[in-house]
């Protein structure tokens, strides 16, 4: 038995260390005191240890069913399987914040570990900036959202159970990955702020920040991909993206982060866009914070809605104003002093990446506008409105397609300037092939120019990626294999990520082009034909889960005479919360998913059944995984290791 | 001038911060529907009494109320009696049994009386999503040609009915 108070106490101590970390190295920087500067590293380590100790204590409370802890009693239950018990830790507001700060401290410790290779004061100042953020969040947890509050002496015998929607393997990994991503952007932010404070606004900060940004971006990509996949199979609607405010909250930092990755590359390699890149780093992390604020403060209603509490809202808003407002003020004062001589041709790679940045920023603002529009509208007393998927689809789609067209060109262009004629020469064949091949595919389908154009663009991107690689490996007399091996990981990371975008796009196109949805009444023995498949309800049985009872329908799926799958959708009743849940059955495939969810029971044996056939839906997430792999590969380029002296 | 340019992000953020501050603690519940002036979305729902799949075609062709309710919703039992009175006055009410269990719903109507001219079951809440509802009860006024005229969130009572009635007579 570990007392939960130990966790609480560790958190208070951690807060004190965070305050020290936020102040001492800064004082050291301005007074040129070496001792204070070098204190940053040990302070970071101790703060991280204390936060993780507190995290561990709470995890133990969950694992051992300590329902005297209010938070545990609200989110866990003795019948819950052990892995859900532990992951229930981040199933509610207080625990998610603890996870947030735990991940922030882990990033800070990682930066501290690698900080020796940074010149003079940069490392300590970066850590101090992270310390400021940690202080803010620790105060927030301690004053408004402590997960260690106890119900003594009368505590409940059993807990209220975790929301059944969240009892899923997706929940175990989705939030930590998402937080790894958007908390990770705090590192790029800290580097940018440190550059503003120390005045070292040359290209070097971009080089240090790049691998960190890439890793965070990879985690965020994975987190969003997992979230989309989870929504698809758990919510039972067969959709993969809903433009929900909470989803948008994670998409905005991703879009800004994507822009940041590219602009960091330009700043590092060419020394241009300096002040823009700094602003983008601030912008990206601000959006992460904004996401936290929107989700936690209750200013926006959402299907994800956690407990909304205005006191918490005011606190987070104050935090936001201090961190974002402070950094933008610093930016306004310092960045205006930077003057870089910008010179590059209209067709140089800088120009293409500038277009990339502009389009990504527009996309980010589009999502931001759509998410905040109802708020702003209401603030000016113009009434209440809601912005739905049609707005996002109408605006987001075309702009991203345009972005992908430029994605095809940019990697093939040269820094500074590229001959326009040469670009056309290179690009014309892939374009013709893409359009022709796409047209060929559409001869088998109802023609839709928008989907046709999208598919052409996806193919064009693939062909351009392939062309680029081929040109690079076949230029000299050396064997292709040897040249291919010599290309840097960073380059392969880029290829992989771009290829992933094409794969996702193909998935999105085919899902919207070739999906079927039907709702039918089925009694045992009934056979229904949907698309190329016949579905036969064999019957239904009662089954007993650890903390639920369920009725399970058994449906055989035939393709012609051959049985291709047996699917078992369920209707579950979770005991502790008396909540009904639909557990959809999936028969996944590379080119199509069969998806069945049970509606209501119509009679003793008959069900209303929803059957979906979704073409290429897996490709959406496969593309996400490829992007993530690309991001990681690029982050672990040998170049960074040598520079970092590991 | 240059300073001003670099200060722009800060100013934009301050403006946003003020908007947020005003919004804090405000009632985010009330939302008129984005569907007002538009047709009721297409649906395929199962009729509670006949167990058959029903579509928009079955909806009344005179003005009516569409009431989302559920047995699990305490406010729904509060408004149930008043809906009964309205039905007696000849108001046509279509009930949507929202995210509910069919058996429980049948039992509820048998015990408390049925004010509805028809009850459709939206067990998965899909239709509720299409109509943009955020919970039960919610009531829409819909014209004879299927256009959404008004949305009310929460319990319908004599006070609310004054407003609804106005829309129904348009």
UniProtKB/TrEMBL annotation, chain B:
User: Can you cite a GO biological process for this protein?
Assistant: cytochrome complex assembly
The record's keywords, sorted A to Z, are:
Cytochrome c-type biogenesis, Disulfide bond, Redox-active center
* InterPro entries the UniProt entry points to: Periplasmic_diS_OxRdtase_DsbE (IPR004799), Redoxin (IPR013740), Thioredoxin-like_sf (IPR036249), Thioredoxin_CS (IPR017937), Thioredoxin_domain (IPR013766), Thioredoxin_ResA/DsbE_sf (IPR050553)
Thioredoxin domain boundaries: 34-170
Q: How does it sit in the membrane?
A: Single-pass membrane protein
Instruction: State any single GO MF term.
Output: disulfide oxidoreductase activity
Q: Name one GO cellular component term.
A: outer membrane-bounded periplasmic space
Its main localization is membrane
- Gene3D superfamilies membership: Glutaredoxin
The entry's localization annotation reads: Cell inner membrane
What is the top-level taxon of the source organism?
Bacteria
Which Pfam families is this protein grouped with?
A: Redoxin (PF08534)
Question: Entry's NCBIfam families?
Answer: dsbE
Question: Which family does the record assign?
Answer: Belongs to the thioredoxin family. DsbE subfamily.
Protein name per the record: DsbE family thiol:disulfide interchange protein
Give the species this sequence originates from.
Answer: Marinomonas piezotolerans
Question: What lineage is this protein's organism placed in?
Answer: Bacteria, Pseudomonadati, Pseudomonadota, Gammaproteobacteria, Oceanospirillales
């Amino acid at each position: 038995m570990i007392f939960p108070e130990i966790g609480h106490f560790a958190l208070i101590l951690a807060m004190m260390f965070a305050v020290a970390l936020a102040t001492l190295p800064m004082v050291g920087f301005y007074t040129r005191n070496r001792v204070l500067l070098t204190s940053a590293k040990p302070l970071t380590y101790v703060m991280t240890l204390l936060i993780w100790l507190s995290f561990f204590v709470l995890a133990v409370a969950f694992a051992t069913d300590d329902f005297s802890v209010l938070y545990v009693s609200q989110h866990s239950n003795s019948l819950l399987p052990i892995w859900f018990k532990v992951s229930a830790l981040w199933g509610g507001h207080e625990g998610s914040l603890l996870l947030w700060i735990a991940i922030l401290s882990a990033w800070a410790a990682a930066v501290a570990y690698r900080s020796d290779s940074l010149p003079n004061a940069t490392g300590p100042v970066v850590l101090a900036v992270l310390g400021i953020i940690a202080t803010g969040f620790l105060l927030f947890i301690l004053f408004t959202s402590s997960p260690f509050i106890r119900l003594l002496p009368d505590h409940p015998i059993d807990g209220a159970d975790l929301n059944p929607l969240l009892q899923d393997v997706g929940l175990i990994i989705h939030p930590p990955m998402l937080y790894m991503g958007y908390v990770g952007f705090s590192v790029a932010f800290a580097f940018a702020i440190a550059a503003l404070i120390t005045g070292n606004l040359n290209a070097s900060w971009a080089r240090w920040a790049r691998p960190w940004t890439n890793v965070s971006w990879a985690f965020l990509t994975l987190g969003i991909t997992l979230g989309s996949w989870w929504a698809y199979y758990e919510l039972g609607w067969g959709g993969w993206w809903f433009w929900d405010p909470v989803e948008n909250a994670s998409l905005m930092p991703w879009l800004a982060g994507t822009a940041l990755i590219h602009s960091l590359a330009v700043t590092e390699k060419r020394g241009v866009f300096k002040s823009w890149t700094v602003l983008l780093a601030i912008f990206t992390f601000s959006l992460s914070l904004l996401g936290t604020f929107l989700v936690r403060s209750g200013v926006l209603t959402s299907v994800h809605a956690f407990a909304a509490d205005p006191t918490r809202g005011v606190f987070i808003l104050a935090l936001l104003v201090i961190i974002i407002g402070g950094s933008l003020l610093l930016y306004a004062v310092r960045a205006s002093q930077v003057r870089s001589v910008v010179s590059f041709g209209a067709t140089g790679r800088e120009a293409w990446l500038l277009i990339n940045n502009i389009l990504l920023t527009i996309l980010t603002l589009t999502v931001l506008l759509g998410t905040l529009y109802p708020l702003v509208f209401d603030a000016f007393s113009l009434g209440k409105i809601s912005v739905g998927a049609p707005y996002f689809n109408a605006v987001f789609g075309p702009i991203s397609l345009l972005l992908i067209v430029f994605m095809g060109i940019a990697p093939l262009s040269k820094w500074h300037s590229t001959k326009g004629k040469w670009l056309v020469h290179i690009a014309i064949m892939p374009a013709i092939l893409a359009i022709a091949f796409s047209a060929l595919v559409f001869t088998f389908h109802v023609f839709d120019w928008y989907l046709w154009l999208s598919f052409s663009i996806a193919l064009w991107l693939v062909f351009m990626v392939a062309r680029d690689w081929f040109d690079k490996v076949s230029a000299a007399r050396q064997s292709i294999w040897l040249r291919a091996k010599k290309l840097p990981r960073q380059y392969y990371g880029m290829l992989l990520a771009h290829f992933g975008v094409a794969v996702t796009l193909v998935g999105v196109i085919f899902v919207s082009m070739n999906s079927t949805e039907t709702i039918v009444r089925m009694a045992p023995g009934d056979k229904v034909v949907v698309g190329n498949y016949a579905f036969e309800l064999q019957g239904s049985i009662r089954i007993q889960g650890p903390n639920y009872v369920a009725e399970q329908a058994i449906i055989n799926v035939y393709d012609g005479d051959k049985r291709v799958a047996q699917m078992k959708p369920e209707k579950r009743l979770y005991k502790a919360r008396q909540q009904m849940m639909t557990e959809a059955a999936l028969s996944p495939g590379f080119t199509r998913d069969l998806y069945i969810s049970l509606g209501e029971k119509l009679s003793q044996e008959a069900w209303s059944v929803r059957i979906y056939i979704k073409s290429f839906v897996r490709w959406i997430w496969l593309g996400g995984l490829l992007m993530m792999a690309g991001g990681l590969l690029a982050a672990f380029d040998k170049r960074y290791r040598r520079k970092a002296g590991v | 001038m240059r300073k001003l340019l670099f200060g722009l992000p800060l100013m934009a953020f301050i403006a946003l911060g003020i908007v947020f501050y005003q919004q804090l603690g405000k009632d985010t519940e009330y939302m008129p529907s984005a569907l007002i002036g538009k047709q009721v979305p297409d649906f395929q729902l199962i009729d509670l009494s006949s167990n058959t799949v029903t579509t928009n075609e079955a909806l009344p062709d005179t003005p009516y109320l569409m009431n989302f309710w559920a047995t699990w919703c305490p406010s729904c039992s509060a408004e149930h009696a008043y809906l009964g009175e309205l039905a007696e006055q000849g108001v046509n009410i279509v009930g949507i049994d929202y995210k509910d269990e069919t058996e429980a719903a049948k039992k509820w109507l048998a015990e408390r009386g049925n004010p509805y001219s028809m009850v459709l079951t939206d067990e998965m809440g899909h239709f509720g999503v299409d109509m943009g509802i955020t919970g039960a009860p919610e009531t829409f006024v819909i014209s004879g040609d299927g256009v959404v005229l008004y949305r009310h969130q929460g319990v319908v009572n004599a006070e609310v009915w004054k407003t609804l009635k106005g829309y129904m007579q348009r």
